[in-house]
Specification:
With 187 residues, the chain is mostly beta strands. The chain has 1 helix and 13 strands, in the order E-E-E-E-E-H-E-E-E-E-E-E-E-E. The protein has one helix spanning 76-83, and strands at 9-22, 25-26, 30-31, 35-51, 54-72, 87-90, 97-100, 111-119, 124-134, 149-157, 159-161, 164-166, 168-173.
């Protein structure tokens, strides 16, 4: 394949999450409706060493990544993956009621997340984090004349593939490619 250069992503088209169960094993992926925003911000420990009065050496070790993503509305199927909660449904159309209880005192589960942005040259870029955990459950604000957004902040932790520690993978495609479960894997 020729080197097609850097894709210039301009439009976030989708965010997909899946429950992480063990290395390389994920539950059913779920697309977040009305994906609005995704941020991946790698974090590092740093140190410096001076010699003869000047800076001689630097050390930067990537430790994890901060991940933020948001979408429109409150989606229970997304929350079951991120919070580890279950839902209960009752009634029949047009009076179906779905209920989710937010528990306390339980550890939140790990999940994988992949965001896809479409580029101006007909391709796309996928940003995937293998093993994430929310810092806290989402906060919601109901306001007059404004849509409710689900906003999540998480950390991406290392995943071991062979002898290599990884936190995520970035993929660039010459033509638009669907986000699939394989995006969570190490290939």
């Amino acid at each position: 394949m020729p080197n097609f250069g850097g894709e210039r992503p301009a439009i976030l088209s989708s965010i997909m999450i899946a429950r992480y169960t063990s290395p390389g094993v994920y539950g059913t992926p779920i697309l977040m409706g009305d994906s609005m925003r995704m941020l991946v911000d790698a974090q590092a420990d740093t140190d410096e060493m001076k010699s003869d009065g000047y800076l001689a050496h630097g050390l930067t070790v990537v430790t994890h990544a901060m991940v933020e993503f948001s979408g429109g509305g409150i989606e229970f199927d997304i929350l079951t993956v991120l919070n580890g909660e279950t839902t209960a449904s009752s009634g029949s159309t047009p009076n179906i009621e779905e209920t989710m209880i937010q528990s306390v005192g339980l550890d939140l589960p790990y999940f994988g997340v992949v965001g896809r942005a479409l580029g101006e040259d007909g391709g796309d870029i996928h940003l995937g984090m293998y093993r994430c955990k929310l810092d806290k459950p989402a906060a919601y604000e109901l306001r007059q004349n404004e849509f409710v957004l689900s906003e999540f902040t998480a950390k991406a932790f290392r995943e071991v593939f062979g002898a290599v520690n990884k936190i995520g993978r970035y993929r660039q495609h010459e033509t638009v490619t669907a986000v699939e479960l394989t995006n969570f894997l190490s290939v």
